[in-house]
Design a protein that fits this description.
The structure is a single chain. This protein is α+β, with helices and mostly antiparallel strands. It is built from two helices and five strands. It has a five-stranded mixed beta sheet with strand order 2-3-1-5-4, with helices on one face.
Length: 107
Amino acid sequence: MLLFKHRSVVKINMADLDHEKESLAKFLSTHFKLASSANLEGLELNNDDVSSHSLAEMVNKFLKSKGFNLTHWVSVSNNVVKINKFQKKKDKKNKHPVAPSTIKHGW
């Protein structure tokens, strides 16, 4: 007989969008009736209420509604939904640059 059952949680890791924690919690509460609690990395939800893949879709809807879908993307691994930031592309340097022509045309 188990006296204390270990509750399983689904975590949302949103270190890059830390200032949007409360907004995401409110979004999940109003649109999907999900209760969440805040922690250092982001939010935690009860695994009995929602699966990690369906939570990832909900977080993606939140990002789209706030306009963050152009700069951030959602990944899922085990019971962690992570909000990642897109990496900036580095400018390619030309290996063989061509100098401008210095010939003067006299016509």
